[in-house]
Every structure is written in structure tokens, then in C-alpha cells.
Design goal:
Elements (H helix, E strand, L loop, with lengths): L2 H4 L6 E6 L8 H12 L5 E4 L11 H11 L4 E6 L5 H13 L4 E5 L18 H10 L4 E6 L10 H13 L4 E4 L5 H13 L6 E5 L5 H11 L5 H10 L3 H21 L4 E4 L5 H10 L8
Parallel strand pairs: 1-2, 1-8, 2-3, 3-4, 4-5, 5-6, 6-7, 7-8
Helix pairs in contact: 2-11, 9-10, 10-11
This protein binds flavin-adenine dinucleotide.
């Protein structure tokens, strides 16, 4: 099923994200996590492309597990920064063969030592979107950054480029994680002023350990509200308490978003079915799987 159809539904939607393993020996383990998360019956599941320490090699295999074994609508991420156009085309063909209808089209982070872009590479995600559209009847998503993309000179410059990306025929957007919902609400207002009207799925990351927090902030420069900082400071040294507080914080963020009219939230569940399970249980009267 296309995600654009799911996002048209009025009912509250929750989706989950996983990342591929570093090596083939961990593939079965990740597939097991897929099956456990699928049992929660999220509206859809997504699999990243080489992000969070995984490799891109297994993205299609895991998407296949989600779509064809677990029968959950599936979103496969696809980055183009470290590949030639021919290599990207080959992945699109494999996704087509596995009947994956949804692709999150991303540029990816430019590797520090890379000569970029080479003549046969895509430079920005909007170029990749145009190409995917020409290769099949895919529903295509793009990434957006409520706090601005780290490379952009300003938020308004970033929004100019986001508008180009949406105009390249992007069907929906998913946000980078944020820890203060007001950032999302302000961002939505800016999108409206820019006449960006595609559905915007809010991305929420349950932070369940302090090391994860440090990594997130160094990578994305997220603004941390004092309420969140207090949790990390108080519980960083107590893993069980930090996990519980992180799940409660993410749950509260999701409830606030839904109470304020957001109908779909994407949870960065990071291959942790236990964390996803607790959040789904916390929301059992709010999210009713179809
Ligand atoms: P783009 O949309 O191409 O934007 C990149 C930068 O270029 C921005 O600063 C933008 O303002 C600027 N820009 C865009 N168009 C132009 C233009 N025409 N002229 C000048 N500047 C321009 N990474 C992974 O490796 N794997 C994943 O699976 C993955 N999944 C993600 C999922 C989500 C929801 C998000 C938010 C991010 C994800 N990332 C992933 C990280 C992402 O790849 C990086 O943030 C990357 O640096 C930007 O990718 P993009 O698709 O947003 O790029």
C-alpha cells in the first residue's frame, strides 16, 4: 500500500523505523526485530539505507521481509551520495522486483574525504526524486528539518530547497527528530507560508540511553529543551531509569502532537522492539491498528 494513501486516513497512524545490520551475520537478528515490531501492527515500517551504523547492502532484503513476509506497508530509504546513477538504478530495480511501492529519497551525508559530486552522481535529493518517478509508479517521500539542515546557511534557504524538492514530485515528508514540539508547530507554519502542502510525518526518537543522546546532538545539532536535559542529567548513570524516562518523554511528545491535530507520527525505534512495544502499549487507547 502506498504511504500517501495511509496518510489520507483520518485515524491516528504510528510507524516504526529500523536500520540494516553491519554484516550478514546479524541479518537474521534484524529480521527477528522486524517480525516482533510488525506484530505491533504499525501503519507502516521503514528501513534506512546505511544510516545508524548499518550498511546499505541489506536494505532491500529487510524491506522484502517487512512487505512480503510480515505484510506491513513498507518504506525503503535510498541515499545517492556514495553511489553512481547506475548503482542507484540497480537498487530501484530490486525494490520494484520486491513490490516495494514507497521510497524515502535522500541525498545522504557527504563523506568527509569524498570528491563530490562526480559526473555520474546525483547532487541533491530532488534529482533522485525526479529519477525515481521516471522509473516506476512509486510513492516518494523526502526528509525535512524543522531546525534547518546543518549544511544550509539559514532555515529560509533550507525551505527554498525543500520547496524545490516537493515540487520535484515528492508525495510526503518525514521530519528529522525534534525534542520540543513547538519546533515542529513553528515549522508547519513556515511550510504553510511557503505553500508546501504535502503531508508531513513527525519523527520522534525515544532516547533510552545517554550515549545515544550525545551521538544525536553531535550529528544533528538538535535543540534540547531544559525539561529533556534534566532527564538526561538526572538519569544518565542509571540505565533502567533513563530508558523508562526516555520512553515516557517520547510518549508524551506523541500524545501532545496527536492532541494538536497531527495524525501520523513516525517513531525512530532503532531495532528495539521492546521500546516500540512499550510506546505502543502506552498509546493503546489512542492508536488502534487497522
Ligand atoms: P537534500 O534534500 O539534497 O538537502 C541537502 C542539503 O542541500 C540541504 O542543506 C539543502 O538545503 C541543500 N540543497 C538542496 N537542494 C539544493 C539546491 N538545489 N541548491 C543548493 N542547496 C540545496 N541518511 C542515511 O544515510 N540513510 C538514511 O536512511 C537516512 N534516513 C533519513 C531519514 C530522515 C527522515 C531524515 C530527516 C534524514 C535521514 N538521513 C539518512 C540523513 C540524510 O541523508 C542527511 O541529513 C543528508 O545530509 C541530507 O539528505 P537530504 O535528502 O535531506 O538532502
Amino acid at each position: 500500500m502506498k504511504i500517501s494513501e495511509i496518510l489520507k486516513e483520518d485515524a491516528v497512524g504510528l510507524s516504526c523505523e529500523l536500520f540494516p545490520p553491519k554484516s550478514g551475520s546479524q541479518l537474521d537478528h534484524v529480521k527477528e526485530a522486524v517480525r516482533e515490531m510488525a506484530a505491533l501492527r504499525p501503519s507502516y515500517m521503514s528501513i534506512t539505507y546505511g544510516a545508524s551504523g548499518g550498511t546499505s547492502a541489506y536494505t532491500v532484503d529487510i524491506a522484502d521481509e517487512m512487505r512480503n513476509v510480515c505484510h506491513i506497508p513498507t518504506l525503503a530509504h535510498l541515499t545517492c551520495v556514495s553511489s553512481t546513477r547506475e548503482q542507484v538504478d540497480a537498487v530501484i530495480e530490486r525494490l520494484k522486483e520486491a513490490n516495494i511501492e514507497n521510497i524515502l529519497a535522500l541525498r545522504g551525508d557527504i563523506p568527509a574525504d569524498a570528491d563530490f559530486p562526480l559526473p555520474n552522481q546525483y547532487r541533491y535529493a530532488c534529482e533522485l526524486i525526479e529519477d525515481i518517478k521516471s522509473r516506476g509508479d512509486f510513492c516518494i517521500g523526502g526528509a525535512c528539518y524543522p531546525e534547518g539542515h546543518p549544511e544550509a546557511g539559514s532555515i529560509s534557504e533550507d525551505l527554498e530547497h525543500l520547496k524545490e524538492k516537493v515540487d520535484a514530485d515528492c508525495d510526503f515528508l518525514t521530519t528529522q527528530m525534534f525534542f520540543d514540539n513547538n519546533i515542529y508547530y513553528n515549522f508547519m507554519y513556515r511550510l504553510l507560508k511557503k505553500n508546501i502542502t504535502v503531508p508531513v510525518v513527525a519523527g520522534i526518537m525515544p532516547v533510552t540511553n545517554a550515549a545515544q543522546m550525545k551521538r544525536i546532538v553531535s550529528l544533528s545539532g538538535n535543540l534540547l529543551p531544559p525539561r529533556f536535559k534534566a532527564i538526561v542529567e538526572r538519569f544518565a548513570e542509571d540505565p533502567a531509569a533513563m530508558r523508562q524516562a526516555g520512553i515516557a518523554y517520547a510518549t508524551e511528545q506523541i500524545i501532545d502532537l496527536i492532541a494538536n491535530g497531527v495524525s501520523h507520527v513516525h517513531i525512530y525505534t532503532m531495532n528495539k522492539p521492546d521500546v516500540a512495544g512499550e510506546i505502543f502499549r502506552n498509546l493503546s487507547e489512542i492508536y488502534k491498528p487497522a
